[in-house]
Design goal:
Layout (H helix, E strand, L loop, with lengths): L2 H4 L1 H11 L2 H4 L1 H16 L3 H5 L5 H13 L3 H13 L6 H14 L2 H13 L6 H11 L4 H9 L6 H13 L3 H13 L6 H14 L2 H13 L6 H13 L3 H9 L6 H13 L3 H13 L9 H11 L2 H13 L6 H13 L3 H10 L5 H13 L3 H12 L7 H14 L2 H14 L5 H13 L3 H10 L5 H13 L3 H13 L6 H13 L3 H15 L5 H13 L3 H9 L7 H14 L3 H14 L5 H12 L3 H13 L15
Helix pairs in contact: 2-9, 4-7, 6-7, 6-8, 7-8, 8-9, 8-10, 10-11, 10-12, 12-13, 12-14, 13-14, 14-15, 14-16, 15-16, 16-17, 16-18, 17-18, 18-19, 18-20, 19-20, 20-22, 22-23, 22-24, 23-24, 24-25, 24-26, 25-26, 26-27, 26-28, 27-28, 28-29, 28-30, 29-30, 30-31, 30-32, 31-32, 32-33, 32-34, 33-34, ...
Length: 639
């Protein structure tokens, strides 16, 4: 008996037990069932296994099971092979690695990795490559260890390592490996090209991408469709849309991936109309519409803001039997929600026969964002009656619904559900809880949740800053902002909206100006309309209506309803200049002619000054235009 192999089966079992797999997990059942199933599969197993010296027969049977997607049986047969003390060769090991990879069993792969080392296959390049491909989904530290310990590397291994780095987001390392491969005298092939181009795309390395393109032309790889598809994607992601379309048009044999890639590139480059032109070409090229391409086209419709086009596309999907896919139905309901067509969104959702947690979460989110919080909670109750479990996004939407309806008790119940499900560590969920409690004036509870977050991201900081501002604690909002900067977290546009809003609510004009000035000067963030609206609100609340109007007139962009609305609200609060109020109301009526609230505010300002003729004039104007004043309402949490 060969000494290195004598105890292989015993080691395999002991390592497995030490990892708690055989005794404590479902895999014990799996392995046991696999062996029984394997024995049942062969009518006379002992007759077959009697050929102890024929490793080729064992390997052939294991490989055949893997090809037939019978991975469990393949692993079971491998265990039986070890029990007969038959030594596998590297091809056997390769087949078993693929079987374990198909099952996604990381702990079993660790056992297999130990078996590889014990049997001396750790330098076998094909085995190493298979291990790298598996571990790239789990642990890059093991990938690097395996790669660095392999003395002789071939082209396939180098390419697999480049692909592993790209898959795990280690783009700089992918570039280094690609260069090192060539320094080692190994010339990249088309697989290497396809592996490195996504790294160029994801980091926007256009120059390097062009060099790869030139290299592929020199090596005559560019006619290959998969290479051209990768180039189309690279140029699109690097914002060179013209080059992307040029490469696409020169693909002689376009496949489905070609069409999907270029349509996605159109959407990424804000060219939705071009996306549908490409889709028409695809349709006339006799390519059947694939469900993978539909969400991108729906995103294009939203981007183009074409509601009627969305209705037409929905009809096309119905005609082609694609609307039954739950992913497409979910995308459609989100599209209708973006257009404010809640009725159609609800109809699409109700027509879905098999709803998954994504579709349930999407519908809950639609109701929560459409000011229908009660419908959001009702939808959640319906979801609970199914086997689908809510995720973090579901709970975030539900908390937003509770916040908008001012319902503390349901909010606490949602928090309990999220805690039980183990989602409380999610930053977005924690931020939603901070928003909820701060809105209810329970600032201490919001702060307690904030303090429990181990790693605070921008969303968490922004929520806490905003919470202090809502509760009139501007100094603490500024202190939190300073703490954020001290932690090395750079502010973004949203954080500045929170801090400027806090300064506005708390009358901190000097601090507000400092924050606003630092945006572009210190952090390179160009102020947008939301930031200007905060500053107009700050000046107006302080009674500086004339200064606010001058600020608006000097804005580098056209003011919208938020800007003029903040100024009109300031006129109402501070009883400012009636002339400015008239000017502002006129601008608002021009932007939003159906909104009667502007007439009401202006009428009240006239009344305060005893200008009853103007009050009557406005009333008649509203009647002549057929406008109706919206009834006021309040939302009270009922038992």
């Amino acid at each position: 008996m060969r000494p290195p192999f004598r105890n292989a089966h015993r080691v395999f079992e002991e390592i497995t037990q030490r990892n708690g797999f055989i005794r404590n997990s479902a895999y014990s059942t799996l392995c046991y069932w696999s062996m029984l199933n394997t024995c049942a599969y062969y009518e006379y197993p002992f007759e077959f296994h009697g050929e102890k010296g024929n490793v080729i027969s064992w390997t052939s049977k294991i490989s055949s099971l893997v090809k037939q997607n019978q991975s469990e049986s393949a692993v079971g047969l491998f265990k039986m092979m070890l029990m007969t003390e038959q030594r596998p060769n590297y091809v056997t090991i390769l087949s078993v690695i693929r079987a374990i990879g198909g099952l996604g069993l990381e702990d079993v792969m660790r056992v297999m990795y130990g078996t590889v080392i014990k049997m001396g296959f750790e330098s076998e390049v094909s085995v190493v490559t298979a291990l790298i491909r598996f571990y790239s989904d789990y642990d890059m530290r093991i990938v690097w260890k395996i790669f660095n310990q392999t003395p002789i590397k071939d082209l396939v291994l180098w390419s697999a390592m480049v692909s592993a780095c790209v898959k795990s987001g280690q783009y700089a390392e992918a570039f280094d490996i690609f260069r090192a491969m060539q320094y080692d005298g190994v010339k990249p092939n088309h697989v290497s090209i396809v592996s490195i181009l996504p790294a160029c795309a994801n980091v926007g390395a256009l120059l390097f991408g062009k060099e790869i393109h030139g290299f592929s032309i020199k090596r005559i790889f560019h006619p290959l469709t998969n290479v051209q598809n990768s180039l189309v994607d690279m140029y699109a992601k690097c914002r060179n849309f013209k080059a992307s379309m040029l490469v696409f048009d020169r693909i002689l044999e376009k496949d489905l991936i070609s069409w999907i890639t270029v349509i996605r590139g159109c959407i990424e480059n804000d060219c939705p109309i071009e996306a549908f032109k490409v889709f028409s070409r695809m349709h006339f090229s006799c390519f059947r519409t694939d469900e993978k391409i539909v969400p991108d086209l729906i995103e294009g419709i939203i981007q183009a803001d074409k509601h009627k086009f969305g209705l037409a596309f929905h009809c096309f999907l119905l005609k082609n039997g694609l609307s039954a896919f739950v992913s497409i139905g979910t995308a459609l309901l989100q599209m209708y929600a973006k257009f404010g067509d809640l009725e159609s969104a609800t109809f699409v959702f109700d027509q879905l026969h098999e709803k998954d947690y994504i579709s349930w979460s999407a519908m809950i989110s639609v109701h929560a964002r459409s000011n229908h919080p009660y419908n959001a909670l009702d939808t959640f109750k319906r979801m609970q009656s199914t086997d689908e479990q809510p995720n973090e996004i579901t709970f975030v939407s539900l908390l937003q619904a509770c916040s908008s309806m001012g319902a503390q008790e349901p909010g606490e119940s949602i928090q309990a559900h999220a805690t039980k499900a183990g989602y409380l560590s999610n930053a977005f969920l924690s931020s939603s809880l901070i928003d909820l409690y701060c809105k209810f004036g329970r600032i201490n509870q919001g702060k307690a949740i904030f303090n429990e977050i181990p790693t605070k991201d921008l969303v968490c900081w922004s929520s806490m800053i905003n919470g202090y501002g809502l509760n009139g604690r501007g100094d603490e909002a500024l202190e939190t902002f300073s703490n954020m900067l001290a932690c090395g977290v750079k502010p973004n546009e949203v954080v500045f909206i929170s801090i400027l809003s806090a300064c506005s609510h708390c009358g901190l004009e000097h601090e507000g100006w400092n924050c606003f000035s630092s945006m572009e000067q210190k952090y390179g963030i160009v102020p947008k309309l939301a930031h200007y609206a905060c500053m107009v609100d700050l000046l107006s609340r302080r009674g500086n209506i004339e200064g606010a109007l001058q600020f608006v007139n000097k804005m580098p962009m056209e003011p919208d309803k938020r800007i003029w609305g903040a100024l009109l609200a300031g006129c109402r609060l501070t009883h400012g200049s009636i002339e400015i109020a008239e000017l502002v109301a006129e601008r608002l009526i021009g932007l939003d002619p159906q909104n009667t609230s502007y007439y009401v505010i202006l009428s009240n300002l006239y009344a305060e000054q005893g200008r009853w003729e103007d009050v009557e004039r406005l009333r008649k104007l509203v009647d002549e235009k057929g406008l109706k004043k919206e009834m006021g309402y309040s939302m009270v949490e009922a038992e």
